[in-house]
Amino acid sequence: MANKGTYYITTPIYYPSSNLHIGHTYCTVMADAMARFKRASGYDVRFLTGTDEHGQKIQTLADEKGVTPQEYVDNIVAGIKDLWKTMEISYDDFIRTTEDRHMRRVQQIFMKIYESGDIYKGHYEGLYCTPCESFWTESQLKDGKCPDCGRPVVKAKEEAYFFKLSKYSQKLLDLYDEHPEFLEPESRRNEMRSFIGQGLEDLCISRSTFDWGIPVPVDEKHVMYVWLDALSNYITALGYPEDNELYNKYWPADVHLVGKEIVRFHSVIWPAMLMSAGIPLPKKVLGHGWILLGGEKVSKSKAAKGMDVIDPVILIERYGVDALKYFLLREYTFGQDGAFTNEVLLKRLNFDLANDLGNLVSRTVSMVEKYCNGVVPKATTESEFDKDLRNIAVSARDKVEKEMDSFRFNMALEEIWIVIRRANKYIDETAPWVLAKDPLKKAELDTVMYNLAEALRVVSVLIHPFMHTTSAKIREQLGLNYEILWDDAVRFDMSEGNTVKKGDAIFPRLDIEKELKELSEIAAEIARKKQLQSVTDPVERAILESVPVEVKPDIDFSEFEKVDMKVGKIIKAERHPNADKLLVFKVKIGTEVRQIISGVAGSYTPEEMLGKNVIVVMNLKPRNLRGLESHGMIIYADSDDKVKYVTTEAEDGNGVH
Ligand code: MSP
């Protein structure tokens, strides 16, 4: 395949403050798919990721745990590397900002900027928490106090080094005008224009109140803080400025993939630093949106409150790596935020993977086995359906490439699924089971089998950058044991004579209700454990340590609002004539009397219930229970092996809020 040149793609380097969640994996999965796609289509790819390990926050977390910052980050970084291994992320290099190679080179980059006259010593002013030795901005404070320890802060001034960022305002605006492709999507470019338009301030790049950082080479009392350190990773990992072989080959980067909240650092500070040091700028900074949980950016603390599981390790254990990758790439539109819930995930997996792709594989392989002794036959006839399927299959590759070149991962996958859905429809249109009954239709049947095997082979090539394990499983079932080539996706002449072999379902169908229940139990358990970590009160601890209460998945308020609950008084109570477990009540609710039946004979006698105030769900559809109608429902609460009716002092007929 033609070598199309080099392609250098990076992810942000992650803070190893705690384990990563699904939001972090989103960016890395996109970068991985892009790297694999570019490799497949003939580029010499370099894919970099890593961790951003310095700064006050890490130092504080390490202190709290009673370990050194290095021990702290080593532990988390090992977990991050394991995660990327599990997720089969194909990075070429993993840079840690605590590595010597990085620290040394950052100091050299600092000196280049220093020597260009863009670094000066000044004073950093802010709100200072003396016990924590931390500076805060007004907006970071919690109720006007230190967000870490809750103690008062004082205005303070500290000596610090500054980078002359303000000098670069016009140059940055010119950059966006001359190279609009430098920063995308356009909405982010406009945001940055107006941010710069408000006037750029010089940037504080050192601190002297803590020491977990790279020493400032011209002043050992200071460490770098922290973006100069972090952003430089993209070139220090290539050896710059000591050993420039990789740097000369791969820099400038083709794309820095970053989340929207750090676009500013990458499209303002980073190019200004590079301009100052006389280094060429990256070709593109691309800002993606956030995965949201309950309307907010996914974060560990948010997860602890919800019912949704956002730990990628758990999701992978249950559904597999490719399912998670497919979901992340297909569900969200690049550049926009998108909601995550267990339900969206499960529906995607069932509809697209189990139904569309899974079915196509199992139907195709089974039919070739059944009708052709497992050997893909020769195609000798051609109908309109055949032509259409072939055209759609062989034209998909160019469409996928076009979408990928614009980072529209979801649309690239949609193009592949158009082929998959077309092939499934083709099975229904050609009805091979009917053809198989008529010996005169043998040639047509052979053509159908051939075309299905070919279409699926094309799919196996196209999905390879996104889900290579699934691609391999499909190819195994199709009996394709040669190296996969991207160009094979535009051919339709490769399957004749292959021996197929049925395997396990590549994506078993999920029972969504059951999965939702289990996932919410897992989420509740995670939340409970998390809460336990921070609770010291013995009574509260005892409650949290006892058997967890079973909780059903969250519902929206709009759903709950539909339930109409009123207070009623039981004016008559008797046993159901045909059922031991049921009691039949007449309940007065305002001016109405309803017959309501409850299965509580094991907990109450009719006499015990007579005269009680109860809460009634008014708008439950009437049901016939063993010959008697029950209209509405009385609310009870579980209490060990009995139930207890829920009561109130309110007058009957009143609504419940
Ligand atoms: N260390 C800095 C980046 C330095 S790059 C020179 C940092 N680290 S981070 O760990 O906080 O975030 C890393 C990336 O994860 C960011 O691009 C951020 O947008 C992304 N995400 C974190 N939560 C996310 C979601 N909920 N959704 C999508 N991406 C999210 O910032």
Blueprint of the fold:
Layout: E1 6-14, H1 22-40, E2 44-51, H2 56-65, H3 69-86, E3 93-96, H4 100-115, E4 119-129, E5 134-136, E6 154-163, H5 169-178, E7 183-184, H6 186-197, E8 203-204, E9 206-207, E10 215-216, E11 219-224, H7 227-231, H8 233-236, H9 245-250, E12 255-259, H10 263-277, E13 285-288, E14 291-293, E15 296-297, H11 300-303, H12 312-319, H13 321-331, E16 338-339, H14 342-372, H15 384-405, H16 409-430, H17 432-435, H18 442-462, H19 468-478, H20 512-534, H21 538-545, H22 557-560, E17 565-575, E18 583-589, E19 592-598, H23 606-609, E20 613-617, E21 623-625, E22 628-630, E23 633-634, E24 636-639, E25 642-645
Parallel strand pairs: 1-2, 1-12, 2-3, 7-13, 12-13, 14-16
Antiparallel strand pairs: 4-5, 4-6, 6-8, 9-11, 10-11, 14-15, 17-18, 17-20, 18-19, 20-23, 21-22, 24-25
Helix pairs in contact: 2-3, 4-10, 5-6, 12-13, 13-14, 13-16, 14-16, 14-18, 14-20, 15-16, 15-18, 16-18, 18-19
The structure holds 5'-O-[(L-methionyl)-sulphamoyl]adenosine.
Number of helices: 23
**Judging from the principal axes of the Cα atoms, what is the shape?**
flat
- The radius of gyration computed from the alpha-carbon positions, rounded to a whole number of angstroms, is 32 Å
Please report the distance between the alpha carbons of the first and last residues. Answer: 69 Å
Q: Assign a percent range to the helix content.
A: 40-55%
The helix-and-strand class reads: alpha/beta
What's the count of strands? 25
List the bound ligands. 5'-O-[(L-methionyl)-sulphamoyl]adenosine
Low-confidence stretches: none
Strand order within the widest beta sheet: 3-2-1-12-13-7
Seen as an oligomer or otherwise, the chain set is single chain
Instruction: Let me know the average pLDDT.
Output: 93
